[in-house]
Design goal:
The structure holds 2 protein chains of 2 kinds. By secondary structure, chain A is of the alpha/beta class. Chain A has 17 helices and 19 strands. In chain A, the strands form 3 sheets. In chain A, strands 9-8-7-10-11-12-13-14 form an 8-stranded mixed sheet, sandwiched between helices. Chain A has a 5-stranded mixed sheet with strand order 2-1-5-3-4, with helices on one face. In chain A, strands 15-19-18-16-17 form a 5-stranded parallel sheet. In chain A, a hairpin with a 2-residue loop joins strand 11 and strand 12 (262-268). Chain B has a single domain, classed as Cytidine Deaminase, domain 2, CATH 3.40.140.10. Chain B has 3 helices and 10 strands. The chains are: A alpha/beta, B alpha/beta.
Chain lengths: 482, 147
Amino acid sequence: MAVTVLIPTPLRPFVGGRDAVELEAGSVGELLDRLTGQHAELKPHLFATDGRLRSFVNVYVNDRDIRQLAQRETPVRPGDTVSIIPSIAGGTATQVGAQHAAPLLPKLSHEEILRYSRHLILPDVGVEGQQKLKAARVLLVGAGGLGSPAALYLAAAGVGTLGLVDFDVVDKTNLQRQILHGTSTVGVSKLQSATARIHDLNPNVRVETFETRLTSENALDIIREFDIVADGTDNFPTRYLVNDACVLLDKPNVYGSIFRFEGQASVFHAKRGPCYRCLYSEPPPPGLVPSCAEGGVLGVLPGIIGSIQAMETIKLILGAGQPLIGRLVLFDALKLQFRELKLEKDPECPVCGAHPTVTELIDYQAFCGIGAEPSYDGAEITAHELRDEWQRNPALVVVDVREPHEYEIAHIDGAVLMPLGELPDRLGELDGHHEIVTHCHHGARSLKALEILKAAGFSKVRSLRGGIDAWAVNVDPALPRY
Amino acid sequence: MTLVLDARHVAAIRRHGEADYPAEACGLIGGAVEGDRKVAVQLVPLVNQRTDSARNRYLIDPESFRRAQEKLDRDGLDVIGVYHSHPDHPPAPSAFDREHAWPWLSYVIVGVGQGRAGELKSWVLAHDRGTFDEEPITSEERKVVWQ
């Protein structure tokens, strides 16, 4: 008595129209070898060129899938029934004409096939997905904290073209988190540093650089040439600019932002869900939300959020899984907690709503209230001036408005520590008859302190321009900079 | 071969494509071979098992295929084809369709643009698996039996 192999309808033409074949064999592997030995035309339909059973061919011994048994080694005994059961898969993605196979996507070289082999064996990527990555053009706005991991992972994944917008120079304080750059590139332009690192990682990636600030004048021209934008900016005017330009050009905007120990990410694509303005219709007043330079940021945090941005970008390119559209992921590093908020499209959204009022790019500095600040001419003093004046007038009071942990890093001898938040309650400690100079890290908070003091009636107040950083550079090189 | 698919089958496939839009709809076509014609008798609409990317992929798992085949068997029918929809794409097979195709079966594809079903075409894999060739569809008045 032999083993019965049940043949599904699509394969019957290759076995003389029969619905079953009787064969002698000891294992499934042996059985299939005999079957394809007798009916050679079956082979390409059952096995891929590498000899493995095709993913959509399922073999059952009696009622059990051999994938749950011993695969090819699964034993078969006389009287057993082996069924070949199709699973059927397909779908859109690339269109091919009846006579041609996928001519639109770029081919992969042997080097690329080897490099991306861990992708190629993933069913959701495969050769077609890798070719889509190669054909993709992704623009990274900012080559800093978020742009670093995003650029590295996108380059490693084989995204064919990466555009980078940045106008900064690598600074030593960047290296705590901006892993795209290194000690050897301190003082070099970020774009130059990034290009070298990306090409070292993957020479197949074409890097297109835009050494400029993204503005209302150039944003549409730059973004238009790309498929997806990953926003790694650190300021509100650019974030609104990127959002509006992406809505106007119908580009997905993969968003991430970080502050201290927390981060958030989403994918804004107005055609399929909300945009950044649906989430935050207006920017916060200037100065309310400190930048990373003012507030600090945990170095690993942009690594996590920027990697999420890279992941979402790749998913959009592949068309795989569920994109982060209509969802905002909030990450808290201290609790190690991810939360998710559902985002709705705002029908009244000024850019992507039913009746948009923003139909072209606007002045984003003004929109974010920047540039409307009062002029501080004459209210500031340079580090050199302060040193000279302090020597002449030891009664001059220097008020350090930074936080105590910053004071611990470095402080100016003789300065009084009064953190900005405590200042309104501690005005009584200051004598309005003396000259007062406020200082902070870089000179922004001390201007706010100056306003508080002026409003309280202090008239002889000035602010140290450039803060303790300028003092360390120009007056006291023994102080560490941070 | 020619696929015989009557007007009610066509209407049913189009309706299924519209109902599942923007996901891909899929199902099996049960029927019988008569000479050089595959005659559709009964449609077996199935649930697309690809929940991860149902907008551009469909999957009929072996268990669903088996159950449908057993049912058709009882009616003396065979699986003669598969139908699926291409949301917002024309009814032409993709490279993915071709790589995953079975020979002989009719692959009926309906394009569904913006939720409205459009053209319907049938394709058959070439024996060398290299191409998908369009297969003529003819219409004949026959009884449609839904599962």
